[in-house]
Amino acid sequence: MFAIPLAWLQLKRETIRLLVALAGIGFAVILMFLQLGFQDALFESAVTLHQNLDGDIFLISPQSTSLIAMKSFPDRRLYQSMGFAGVESISPIYLGFGIWKNPFWEGPPTSQTRSILVIGMVPGDSVFLLPEVKANQAQLRLTDVVLFDRASRTEFGPITEKFEALKATGGLVKSEIESRRVEVGGLFNLGASFGADGNLITSDLNFRRIFSDRKKGLIDIGLIKLKSGADLEKTLERFKQNLPGELRTDPKKTTNQTQEDFVVGDVRVLSKKAFITLEENYWKESTAIGFIFTLGTAIGFVVGTVIVYQILYTDVTDHLAEYATLKAMGYKNRYLLSVVFQEAIILAVMGFIPGYILSIGLYNLTRNATALPIAMTLNRAILVLCLAILMCVISGSIAVRKVQDADPADIF
Amino acid sequence: MLQPIIAIENVSHYFGAGRLRKQILFDITTIVEPGEVVIMTGPSGSGKTTLLTLIGALRSTQSGSLKVLGQELRGGSENKLVELRRNIGYIFQAHNLLNSLRAWQNVQMSIELHSEIPASESRDRAESMLEAVGLADWATQYPSELSGGQKQRVAIARALVCNPKLVLADEPTAALDKKSGRDVVEIMHDLAKKQGSAIVLVTHDNRILDLADRIIHMEDGRLSSLDVTPLANG
Ligand SMILES: Nc1ncnc2c1ncn2[C@@H]1O[C@H](COP(=O)(O)OP(=O)(O)O)[C@@H](O)[C@H]1O
Ligand SMILES: [Mg+2]
């Protein structure tokens, strides 16, 4: 009906103000993208290990709450489950944090050390879905040989580069973990998480050599693979029936959830999905991380709302005489309100675009600097666009009240 | 006889409330015929603008009866008043153009209120109106790029483009120099005469009184009709 796009023409006419507004909205958009991106990356990095485990059912100690707080349990339970119908194979997994020494450190005299997650596995078992681990795990039969995660943080040293360089000459990267000399026999790709800055894989024997106080017969995770065609639910039911001890389930969980996550005696039995959920919930609920990032996102939202409100309010104030003129000519209040809301939506969309592009760049920077799996996703882009529009509509609805002040009787 | 464009009967107006309530207009009664050019003079503060805003449906009528274009304004709904405004051309002391719009777009803002004019014609119509006020070459300029007289002529084009039956102008020459002031009023007068629009024009400028069919005088909120025929080219 209205051929003249007054909202856009008014915004365009004040170039500087438009740029300031777009910068402000872009800033808020970036803030929200970073906060939400970090949060997703954190939760995703926390379960990368779980996702790459080649198992269907997992046993852990009922006291284990997360990968960074694992309690060992007797491997008897794992061997018992070998006899249950539907079970194809079982593998023990050992976890421990050890101090790794950067072997190439040339800085100040003191050495550079950092805590790394060491994963112990039986060299003949298939524990990881990672092809590089499968290809290299024969190396683990050798004494004091480890596989190194190339996506570990850089503080562990230029292991990857040196490994590739030495490979040509037949040499190996040597380092120390928990003051024990080890050799890097191969590389794999898993990624750092908030809990672990890097990962090592080694054999169960080497694991006990590194952590000499760990007792034989105590494991951290029991990995169970089902026969192809075996039903997960039915097999879990057999675990419920056949493991010794009292059955306990979390009363806060639904029946569907307790089917895949229950405690029998001294072990907790989890499906892979439930194992992942357990880790995610630890970070979401037992730490302040979710809250902090939500708060960060909210701050971005509020900052954006205030900036847009300032801009729209100034704009309405500047055009008050013109709006009064339009009212005198016979334009209704509704038209003027729609002009302000159009301005708000235009600002939101125009500010979103540079914010979106810059955020992709910042994600790349962050990924390279922190080895966190942070990337733009369509869902997050849509969420932030909606937040940006909501932000502008809220400021718009406060600013439009000023339009009521435009009194056509004042302009004669 | 034709229905008058404006019929004012015993209109009074008050500003303020309670003890501060002050009467500004006292029992105004007059009539403006279709096509008539009426000039209102009077000292500053006498109530001229107040009367004009009442006629223009920009302020609600408090007492008496005020009929504009056949419609009673007193007690009229906000919606009705807004609709009525679309049929009146306003020319303000300051030009009040929209600074973000080019000259032709300013004129088109007025056309867009009239759905009977097809969108395809509206730009042509805006431009020919600008041509009529002598701004054919200035149609794409922004107000800030125009002189005071030119701006006031754009405002005239905007007010007259939809052939309003009534044009209200409040000291349209106040911000202009003598020569361009006279030009602007002449353009407005000629176009309105051609379209058959009535004009109510408030002015202090004695040199343009000759354009009036009738002069009315406001003093302390009371209207006196100076039924003297204006001096020919006085
Ligand atoms: N909105 C208002 N509130 C209160 N008093 C007003 C208002 N507008 C005008 N007045 C008063 O009404 C009187 C007439 O004003 P006005 O109609 O503007 O006179 P004129 O146009 O003849 O100079 C003046 O005394 C002025 O102070
Ligand atoms: Mg006045």
UniProtKB/TrEMBL annotation, chain A:
Subcellular location: Cell membrane
Domain of life: Bacteria
The keyword Transport appears for this protein: yes
Pfam families in alphabetical order: FtsX
Membrane-protein topology: Multi-pass membrane protein
Every ABC3 transporter permease C-terminal domain range: 298-403
Name of the protein this chain belongs to: ABC transporter
Lineage: Bacteria, Bacillati, Cyanobacteriota, Cyanophyceae, Leptolyngbyales
UniProtKB/TrEMBL annotation, chain B:
Family matches, as NCBIfam families: heterocyst_DevA
Protein name: ABC transporter
Domain ABC transporter: 6-231
Annotated InterPro entries: AAA+_ATPase (IPR003593), ABC_heterocyst_DevA (IPR014324), ABC_transporter-like_ATP-bd (IPR003439), ABC_transporter-like_CS (IPR017871), ABC_transpr_LolD-like (IPR015854), MacB-like_ATP-bd (IPR017911), P-loop_NTPase (IPR027417)
GO CC, one annotated term: membrane protein complex
Single Gene Ontology MF annotation: transmembrane transporter activity
SUPFAM superfamilies: P-loop containing nucleoside triphosphate hydrolases
Species per Swiss-Prot/TrEMBL record: Phormidesmis priestleyi ULC007
UniProt signal peptide: none
